[in-house]
Design goal:
Rossmann fold, alpha/beta, 265 residues, 7 strands, globular, 34% helix, 9 helices
Length: 265
């Protein structure tokens, strides 16, 4: 079971829309997917359910000791499930400050979950205790980056934080890949993409997501693919899903005909 943490401590880089749409894409390819919303803004939860007031949430798991399996809920997409967030998680740093092993609470909760091929963890735009929990719980880190003026701001502190966790908490935290998105086909986008590729090298995925597809907004319970995108945008997003769908170690295989090669280069 692969656990992907989508992280960038800068806001507005489409972590949520990338998580939601990637979840839909992988589920539609025939895999069982669990999305975990660790952001107190609850945008992923709202996108997948249309509500922000779920009865049982990740707050209950991390703070009250509820089993993760008891808060997981289905979505309208077959094979796609959600562990919803709560606005109460905004107090997580304070409430978990003195908790023993606070960095590994999510990892311990995930150890009881066995029925999924892939888990996607959406994180808040900071490097607090919730993001650290997501880092410790994951097998791989995916960094979404918007091709805008300030794309690389915060990347340095993100990488330093990850290195400190590797050094001090004995975790691997490999950067599985970097998703470049919000490409509006301007010179600025091209220049920023060049800078991102110079910084991350071949860890940047080949397929670049154009502005207006996965990016900017995610309609409530309406992922990309349910609406009527342009033929170009649809083809680019399908290309991203097909090229970058991880498949090793999965308990369930994709439907016949699905190209499942995952090549970040």
């Amino acid at each position: 079971m692969r656990v992907f943490c989508l992280a960038n401590n800068k806001g507005g880089v489409t972590k949520t829309t990338t998580t939601v749409n990637l979840g839909y894409g992988i589920a539609r390819a025939g895999y069982r997917v669990l999305v975990i919303d660790t952001d107190a803004q609850c945008n992923t939860t709202y996108s997948l359910t249309g509500r922000m007031d779920q009865e049982s949430t990740l707050f209950d798991v991390l703070i009250n000791g509820t089993k993760l399996t008891e808060v997981i809920m289905p979505t309208q997409q077959e094979r796609l499930f959600l562990a919803p967030s709560s606005i109460n998680l905004s107090a997580a740093d304070l409430l978990m400050a003195s908790a023993p092993g606070r960095e590994r609470k999510l990892a311990r909760a995930l150890s009881q979950v066995k029925d999924f091929d892939y888990i996607l963890i959406d994180t808040p735009p900071n490097l607090g205790v919730l993001t650290v929990n997501a880092f410790i719980a994951c097998t791989d880190v995916v960094i979404p980056i918007a091709l805008t003026t300030y794309a690389l701001i915060g990347i340095g502190i993100l990488e330093r934080t990850m290195q400190e966790l590797r050094d001090n908490l004995d975790v691997e935290l490999p950067i599985f890949g970097v998703i470049a998105n919000l490409d509006d086909h301007t010179k600025l986008s091209a220049d920023v993409l060049g800078a991102v590729r110079e910084h991350f090298g071949d860890r940047v995925f080949q397929t670049v997501i154009p502005s207006g597809s996965l990016a900017k907004s995610c309609p409530v319970k309406q992922p990309f693919g349910s609406s009527e995108p342009s033929e170009y945008v649809e083809e680019r997003c399908k290309q991203w899903w097909h090229q970058n769908l991880p498949h090793d170690g999965a308990a369930h295989r994709p439907d016949p005909g699905v190209h499942a090669a995952f090549h970040p280069r």
